[in-house]
Amino acid sequence: MIEIRHLTRVYDGVPVVNDVSLTVETGELAVLVGTSGSGKTTLLRMINRLVQPTSGQVLVEGVDTATLPAHLLRRRIGYAIQGHGLFPHRTVAQNIATVPRLLGWPRAQIDARVDELLVLFQLDPATFRDRMPHQLSGGQAQRVGVARALAAKPDLLLMDEPFGALDPLIRAKAQADLRAIQRRLGTTLILVTHDMREAVDLGDRIAVMDGGRLLQYDHPARILTQPAVPFVRDLIGATDRPLRLLSLKTVGDLAQPGDAEGPTIPPEATLRDALAECLWSGRTAVPVQGGGIVTLDALRAEARPQ
Amino acid sequence: MPRLSPPAVLFALIGLAGLALPLVQFKANRIVAGEGVGLADLPHGPWVLPALGAILVLACPARSPAAARLASAVAGLVAATLMLGTAASHLPPPGNSLARVAPASGFWLLALAFGLMLADAVNRLRPSLALRWVMLAGAVALTAGILVSGVLDGVSVMREYATRRDLFLREGQAHLALAFGSLGLALLAGIPLGIVIFQARRWRGPVLGALNILQTIPSLALFGIMIPVLGWVAATIPGAAQAGVSGIGTFPALVALFLYSLLPVVSNTLSGLSGVPAPTQEAAVGLGMTRAQVMAQVLVPLALPVLLAAVRIVLVQNIGLAVIAGLIGGGGFGTFVFQGLNQTAMDLVLLGALPTIALALVAGIALDLLVQGTRRGAA
Questions:
Q1: Domain shared by A182 and A292, yes or no
Q2: Are A96 and A118 in contact (CB under 8 A)?
Q3: CB pair distance less than 8 Å for A99 and B288
Q4: Which of A18, A198, B106, B229 is the most buried (most CB within 10 A)?
C-alpha cells in the first residue's frame, strides 16, 4: 500500500504540487492524469525521491520513504520513462540486469531472471539477450524498459508516460500487455499520462490533477459519470463520455438469455465493441460466444450515468 | 580510353615529377650544397625508373583494384627507399668518409606519391578494424626492418644517427616523456575539471574562456613566458627549485604542453558528458545508481569515444609541439632540429624531424582505430 500524505513541492515560491494526499492499494493500478504543468510528473518523481518533497510524506507499506537513503529506496521501486532511457552501450540483458546487479544478486539468478522477463514480454531470449538497444524497434525497446523496471521484483512500479513514444497501433497492444502483466504479477503501479483515454482504459483508479492540486481521485466509472469539478468533465470530453463508459465493462458482464442473428462477439470484448458491432451491422442484438445475447437497449442503458 | 580515377592521376603526376627530379644529393661534406643525382644514373636505375613509372600509370584507371594499388604503393615506397640506400653505398668514392648522400626532391615526391596512394588504397579497401591494426603493425615492422637491415646506413640522416646513437635514444625517450607526460597530466587534471563544469553549469563559461585564451598564445611565446615566470618561482619560493621547477629545461616544456592540452581534454569531457541522452541519465538515477555509479557506469563509458578523440588530438599535437622544447633545453627530438638549424646541417634537422613525424603518424592512426573500436561498442 502506498500512502501519499499532504505532499507539497514548491519551486521559487510557486507550489508545483500542492498538498496532495492519496492512497494506492496493493496490486492496484493508479493513473495520474492531467495537462502538462499539472504537477503529475513531479508528484510521481517525489515517490522515488528524484524530486525532494518540500513537505509531506510518502509511506510505502507503512515505511516513511524519507527514512531510507534515496538510491536504496529507488532500487526497491521500479521506474520506467518515456523514450525508455535504455543504456545504449549495454545489451538488452545487461540493461534488464541493472537493478539486480546493483543489489548484488548471484550471476545465475540474474541470468534466469533476465530470460524469465524476456519471455514474459514476448521477446525470445536467444534472439534478444545480446542485442544492443539501437537494434530494437520502438515497441521492443519500450518492453525492455518495463522489463528492466520489473527486474528486481519491486513492490511498486512507477511509469512516466511509458507509451508516449509509440505509434497508436503498437500503443494499444503495449497497454493491453502491461495491464495483463500487472494483473498477473500483482504489482502496485502508478502511471502518469496526459491521455484521459489511456487513464480510463488502464486505471483501477484515476487521479485528476490540475495546477498542482488533486481535483478528484476515484474509480474510472465515477470520474466519467460524476466529475467533481467542470475541469474533470472537460478533460474527459462530453462527446466521448458514453463511449468511455461502455469501454469499462465487458460483454460478459451484460449478457442476457436470448437469441440473435448474425456473427457472435467474444465475452471479453468491451461493451463499446458490442455497440460498434450493433451499429455497423444494423442489428438490435448481438449473440455472445458461448451463449446469450447483448441488446442495443441494454447497451443504451449502460452508456448513461446511473 | 578507360575512365580515370582523379586522385590516382594526381598521385601519378606527383610521382612522375619525382622520377624526373634528382633522387639524391651528393655532397662533398655534410654542410656544403651538393649536386643532384637522378634515379637513371644509379645501379639498377635503368630498369627501376620505368618500373616505378609503370606502377604509377597503371594505378590511374578507375577500375584498377584497390588491393593492387595497395601492393603497388608498398612496392613503390620500398623500391624508392632501397634505391636511396643503393645511392648512398655506391656514390661516395671508397675510403671517403666525409662525402654525404642525402634524399633530394625526387625521393620526397616519390615518397609523397606512394604514401598518398597507400592511404587512398587502404580507404578504398575498407578493411575491418582488426585488419587495420594488422596493417599498422605491418607498416611499423617493415620500417623498423629496413632501418635495422642496414641498407640505409650510408644515407646522410643515418650517418648523423650513427654518431649520436646514445643521444638519439635519450632524446627519443625525453620526447615521448614530454608528449605522454603532458597528456597524462592533462587527463588527470582535465577530466575531473570537465566533470566539475558539467555538473556546475555556471563555471563552464569562465573555465572554457580561460583555457581558450591559453590555447591562443603562440607556442614560442608561451615557452618564452615560462622562462621568466618559472625562473622567478624557482628563485623565490623555497623548495621550488629542488622540486624541479626552473625557467629552462624539461619543467617549463612540460608545463607549456600541459596547458595546451587542457582545453581539448576539458571541452571534450564536457561535450562527451553533455551528449549522453537525458532519459538515459534519468533512468540511471531512477533505477537506484549512486552519483558515482551513474558517472562510472553510464556517463563516462558513453563519453569515452569523445574523450579518446581528445586524447588523439592532444597526443598528436604534443608530439609535434614537443619539438619546440628543444629550444629551451627541454630535450626531445627538437634538440637535433635546432642544432641542425644552427649548423645549417639539414641532415641533423631531418634526424629530429623524421622520427617526430613518424611518431605523430603512428599515434594518430592508432588512436583513430581505438576511437572507432569504442564507437562501435557504444553505437
A1: no
A2: yes
A3: yes
A4: B106
Task: Give the Cα separation of B4 and B63 in Å (integer).
Answer: 8
Beta-carbon count within 10 A of B98 CB: 10
Residues of chain B below pLDDT 50: 378-379
Q: Note the pTM of the prediction, 2 decimals.
A: 0.75
Tell which A residues from 139 to 178 touch B, by Cβ distance under 8 Å. 145, 148-149, 158
Residue A178 is part of which domain span?
A: 2-238
Q: Which CATH number does the domain housing residue A50 bear?
A: 3.40.50.300
Chain B: nearest CA to A252, how far in angstroms?
40
The span from the CA of A139 to the CA of A176, in Å, is: 13
Nearest residue, CB atoms, B288 vs list A75, A87, A145: A75
pLDDT in tens, A107-148: 999 999 999 999 998 899 999 999 999 999 988 998 999 999
- Nearest-Å Rg of the Cα atoms of chain B is 25
The number of folded domains in chain A is 2
Q: Which three cell numbers stand for residue A155?
A: 513492490
Complex ipTM tops 0.90: no
Question: Considering CB atoms only, which of B280, B281, B287 is closest to A74?
Answer: B287
Return the higher-pLDDT residue of A112 and A304.
A112
How far apart CA B80 and CA A231 sit, in angstroms, is 86
Q: Which of A14-18, A70-74, A113-117, A300-304 has the lowest mean pLDDT?
A: A300-304
